[in-house]
Write a structure and sequence with these properties.
Radius of gyration: 16 Å
Structural class: mainly beta
Number of strands: 12
CATH superfamily: Jelly Rolls
CATH class: Mainly Beta
Number of domains: 1
Distance between the termini: 56 Å
Strand content: 35-45%
CATH architecture: Sandwich
Helix content: under 10%
Length: 139
């Protein structure tokens, strides 16, 4: 079959094989050159309370953490309580409704703790990079 002219703009290789019994997710982080190398995404349904990020860290790129409910009849119906700390002061923010958090390059963030999950939450992590890595904070 012939390659289409704009095929390079489409990927169907957007599934990440789980490691260490982690949840299955959609992801492009395993494709470092796709999209010009300045974009990556992880996406999955969160169904249980847990600490997603245990320690504060920062990145050299912008990141967007998206938290969306899954009630198709009422998109404002969220059903979870998440705590995310931002800045050097570890200012705690509560996510209990559909929310997008812009984590600017260099902004310290974490921990991110899913305290209560009443029903699945769609979590989408968009990063303006092709090489996702965390810079841990010195203690």
């Amino acid at each position: 079959m012939a390659t289409l002219k704009y095929e390079k703009h489409i990927t169907r290789d957007c599934y990440s094989i789980p490691k260490d019994d982690k949840q299955q997710i959609y992801s492009t982080r395993q494709l470092p050159d796709w999209g010009g190398g300045n974009f990556s995404i992880d996406c999955g349904l969160i169904q249980t309370p847990h600490a997603m990020i245990e320690h504060p860290h920062k990145h050299e790129f912008d990141q967007y953490l998206c938290f969306f409910g899954t009630n198709e009849k009422d998109l404002k119906d969220f059903g979870a309580h998440i705590e995310i700390s931002l800045g050097e002061e570890a200012e705690k923010h509560i996510v209990d409704s559909p929310t997008v958090v812009h984590v600017a390059a260099g902004l310290i963030h974490g921990p991110v703790v899913w305290v209560r999950v009443d029903r699945p939450i769609l979590f989408v992590d968009v990063a303006a990079t092709n090489e996702y890595h965390r810079a841990p904070m010195e203690k």
